[in-house]
Specification:
This protein is of the alpha+beta class. The protein folds into two domains: 127 residues, no CATH class; 174 residues. Helices cover 40% and strands 18% of the residues. It contains ten helices and ten strands. The strands form two sheets. The chain has a seven-stranded antiparallel β-sheet with strand order 1-2-3-4-5-7-6. A three-stranded antiparallel β-sheet has the order 8-9-10. A hairpin with a 5-residue loop joins strand 1 and strand 2. The N terminus is likely disordered.
Length: 347
């Protein structure tokens, strides 16, 4: 994977609204529904206080509070949205659930609200998020759902985006606390990071620094199995630098890169890359028409400044030694060309 290097976004990302063509796609595939709560409704809080972690550190989230009349309207509707996400809208299944807390974060493009849902009988809890529906993020969520090994639950309604909580150990915590393990586990960690790196680059998902993904750890017969899952999709096909789409170039992931250098040679790394490409190819065969529909929307949309499109087209063309990238006019065409380069069958 080469030497680790710093890689940061050039500036704060532009916001792109969901256009009518993308809304039609979302409606066709049951992602666009009429929601009882809009993002703007949650902005009517009366008070906010900083949310601290168990060590007293600022989490950059604020717990928000509403007056009683707002809670009487908002909370049942939020529970109903949770039912739509998790129980096909059957309210009887979740009548024992209630909204326990709402947190708000102004850090990031989507300015999310995090909704904590608690089971009144056993205090078990879950989360979901209400965000501004940025088109880049919607494309990222959909590409993750159909091309990765992970399924993504989300719904949209106009400019409102509802996302399920993606559980796992945050990547930065995983790197700080879980790399000191057996050699066997370390090798599996390295393998998964190579595969994750490949998934991001093939579909042009950027900004996968350690705090933008989580790690699932599954005990196995011998050692653990690991799965890295992206949790931030704001930088889907936005930046102009090729390295921005390769997680191993971010300094926050240096420890994983160095672990890979320790435990893998180039031949082994190439094997893991080919394994991941084969898996993506198999998924494309199953979702061929859906992927074509999505790319048609993406190719007709603007989700990045033209200068960044031209820069990425030139860098991918040089990297692949393939002039066809230079003819791409937008990020949708670049994603399609990138997929065609790595897939066995053309889209």
């Amino acid at each position: 994977m080469g030497e680790p290097a710093a890689n940061v976004p050039s500036r704060k990302k532009y916001f792109y609204t969901v256009n009518d063509l993308l809304k039609d796609y979302l409606f066709k595939y049951n992602r666009q529904l009429k929601l009882s709560v809009q993002y703007s409704d949650l902005l009517r809080f009366q008070l906010s206080v900083p949310l601290l972690d168990k060590n007293g550190n600022d989490t950059l989230w604020q717990t928000v509070y509403y007056d009683q009349s707002e809670m009487d309207e908002l909370f049942p509707n939020l529970t109903a949205i949770y039912a739509m996400m998790n129980a096909s809208g059957d309210l009887e299944v979740i009548e024992h659930l209630q909204i326990a807390q709402i947190d708000y974060c102004t850090f990031g493009n989507s300015k999310p609200f995090r909704i904590r849902v608690i089971n009144k009988f056993n205090d078990n809890y879950d989360y979901f998020y209400v965000k501004i529906a940025d088109a880049s993020r919607v494309y990222g969520l959909e590409l993750e759902h159909i091309l990765s090994p992970n399924r993504i639950g989300y719904l949209t309604d106009g400019n409102t985006l509802i996302e399920e909580h993606i559980s796992g150990l945050p990547g930065d915590i995983f790197i700080n606390q879980r790399l000191n393990t057996s050699k066997f586990n370390q090798i599996r960690i390295c393998k998964e990071f190579v595969k994750f790196n490949e998934r991001c680059f093939i579909r042009l998902l950027g900004d996968m620094r350690s705090y933008n993904y989580v790690v699932h750890i599954t005990p196995d017969i011998e050692g653990n199995q690991y799965r890295i899952r992206a949790i931030d999709f704001d930088q889907q096909s936005y930046e102009g630098r090729r390295q921005f789409y390769l997680p191993h170039y971010f300094k926050e992931n240096n420890a994983l890169v160095l672990l890979g250098i320790k435990h893998m040679d180039e031949k082994t790394m190439r094997q893991y890359q080919e394994e991941e490409r084969s898996l993506i190819n198999n998924r494309v065969k199953l979702v061929h028409y859906r992927l074509q529909d999505l790319l048609s929307c993406m190719k007709a949309d603007i989700i990045s400044p033209q200068k960044k499109v031209e820069q990425l087209a030139a860098e991918l063309s040089d990297f692949h030694h393939q002039s066809s990238f230079r003819w791409c006019r937008n990020m949708g065409e670049l994603v399609e060309e990138q997929l065609n380069h790595y897939l066995f069958a053309k889209l």
